[in-house]
Amino acid sequence: MREIYLDNSATTKVCPEAVQKMVEIMTEHYGNPSSLHLKGHRAEKELESARKTIAEMLSADKEEIYFTSGGTEGNNTAVFGAVNALKRRGKRIVTTAMEHSSVMESMQKLEKDGFEVIYLSPDKSGKITPESVANALTADTILVSMMTVNNETGTIQPVEKVGKIVKKANSFCLFHTDAVQAFGKIPLKPKKWGVDLLTASSHKIHGPKGAGILYLRKDARIVPLHYGGEQEHKLRPGTEPLPNIVGMSEAVKALPDMDSEYHSMKELNLYCREKLSHIDNVYIHSDTDCLPYILNFSAEGIRSETMLHFLEEQGIYVSSGSACAKGKKSHVLKALELPDSLIDSAVRVSFSRYNSKEDIDELAKALINANNTLARSR
Fold it and tell me: Please, what is the average pLDDT of the chain?
């Protein structure tokens, strides 16, 4: 049975270029980048080369790139680091009701610690309007956090417009965006957009797990979460996982042309929409202007987990939502005010350059089969 992997927003297959470079680092340039001998010097050169590659991807200076273990650590570092640096200036934080759990749970912890957190609701298309952000800002707002692309629906948020609003309204307020699902898929220009903090992850772009980055604008200051070393300018101390970092760098180098790949994914997404439109009781939740790499839909009456395992038996791998939620009901779809019957049956498919229209054909056949086979919940 052929494997059809349609869960690329959860994680991706590591590309050959990244694997090859990682093996080289683990077997040849395996020194500690902080060591003063030749092995350490060569490892440091690899580290700084990777930093430069990723900085160029973001039109940033390499001194603004800090390596992390992934999106969750990056988001925690950005949110708590910003708040701890600015807490004497205010207690108000503005975010959205659709953020990744690593941001949502950080915000819930800050609420317990006495901060005021404003959760902005999306419009019917899933977008947060710039006007709602502007209306939420006050003189004591110290942080705004808004993801660039939603990990469940693919909604692209107006980060560039919001960045300008934040900077105009409050000179010291920091603006953070979780760009984990956007990195490598759409152009990101944090400096130009007024973004102070941006997070991204390696394993969403065919790099290894265990590596990510935090972009921190040169003039911005945050407080580190960890202590005990000089690495990453003391913002993220500890020996750098060099194989993972260079794997991320090689994955960036191996990315196809962004515009042509976006067009290819758009074609695949539209093809999938067309196929789904002919299946009874299927409702699509991702708007046509969402990131085409992600498509969220429901086969109403068939629970997400039931559908997921049915498709798995056909060799098709999808998700019931965010992988980090581990099956919990989607707060994103709840924020969109979808009925429980659609939330309980939601499925996310997410594409990569390794997918084809033939994969979609097999998915559609399996969904029709599921409609005819599985008992619907009442």
Answer: 95
Check if 290 is active-site: no
Centre a 10 Å sphere on the Cβ of residue 65 and count the other Cβ atoms it contains: 23
Identify the CA nearest to 197 among candidates 170, 218, 168, 172. Answer: 218
| Assigned token pair, 64 | 């603004």
Q: Which residues of 127-157 are buried (b: 16+ CB within 10 A; e: fewer)?
A: bbbbebbeebbeeebbbbbbbbbbbbbbbbb
Phi, psi dihedrals of residue 201, rounded to the nearest 5°: -135, 145
Alpha-carbon gap, residue 184 to 163, rounded angstroms:
20
Q: Beta strand pairing status for 174-178 and 197-201?
A: parallel
What residues form DSSP beta bridges with 346?
298
- Walk me through the domains of the chain, giving residue ranges and CATH numbers: 4-13+257-373 (3.90.1150.10), 16-253 (3.40.640.10)
DSSP state of 36: S
Which candidate in 15, 272, 290, 324 is catalytic?
A: 324
Q: What is the pLDDT of residues 273-300, one digit of tens each?
A: 999 999 999 999 999 999 999 999 999 9
Q: Which residues contact 163 (CB under 8 A, 6 or more apart)?
A: 175, 193, 194, 195
Residue 324: what residue type?
A: C
Residues 100, 319: Cα–Cα separation, whole Å: 15
pTM: 0.95
Please report, for residues 96, 105, 300, the alpha-carbon distance to residue 340 in angstroms, rounded to integers and kept in the order given.
21, 23, 10
The percentage of the chain sitting over the pLDDT mark of 70, rounded to a whole number, equals 97
Contact 197, 175 (CB under 8 A): yes
Q: What is the pLDDT of residues 99-110, one digit of tens each?
A: 999 999 999 999
Distances (CA, A) of 49 to 184, 192, 230, 246, 268: 18, 23, 19, 8, 34
| pLDDT value at residue 234 | 85
Contact, 157 vs 148, CB < 8 A? yes
- Pairwise CA distance, residues 216 & 51, whole Å: 13
pLDDT tens profile 41-82? 999 999 999 999 999 999 999 999 999 999 999 999 999 999
Longest C-alpha distance within the chain, in Å? 68
Return the CA Rg of the chain. Answer: 21
